[in-house]
Amino acid sequence: MAAFPTSFVNTTHVTMTQFDVFVNPIAAMRKAYPFVVVLQSDLARDAHDPIVAPLVPRQSMSKVAGRLTPIVGFDGSEYVAVVPALMGVRFRDLAERGGSIASARSELLGAVDYLFFGV
User: Fold this and answer.
1) What would the pLDDT profile of 14-47 be if each residue is shown by its tens digit?
2) Domain that holds residue 20
3) Which CATH number characterizes residue 20's domain?
4) How many CB atoms lie within 10 A of CB 2?
5) What is the reported pTM?
6) pLDDT digit string (tens) for 40-65?
7) Which residues make beta-bridge pairs with 53?
8) What is the DSSP letter of 19?
C-alpha cells in the first residue's frame, strides 16, 4: 500500500466541503484510484452518501478525455479527476481528509456540466 502524505487527518469527526480530497474509502480500488474528490454541493450536507469522483495519478493514464477528465494538482502531483466515474460513498467512510482542490473549481464544475448538460 502506498504511503499517504503526513498532512492526512484520520478522525471520526471529519467535516466535508465541496472539492475536499479524501483517501479512497474503497480499499480494493485504492491502488488505481488513491483519492476521491467531493463534488456534492455544501448545500446538500444532509445527504448520507456524498457524490465523489475518483482521482487517478496523471502518469498512470495514457490518454485523458478532455473536459470530462480535468487534470488537477494535489499534494505536489498531477491527478486526473474521472468525472464520468462518479459514485456515492457513505459519509462515515470518508475518514482521511487530505486537503482541497477548490482551486480547480472551474474545471471540475465544467466537467460536471458537460457530463450532465452537454455545456
Assistant:
1) 678 999 999 999 999 999 999 999 999 888 777 7
2) 14-98
3) 2.30.30.110
4) 8
5) 0.85
6) 988 877 777 899 999 999 999 888 77
7) 37
8) T
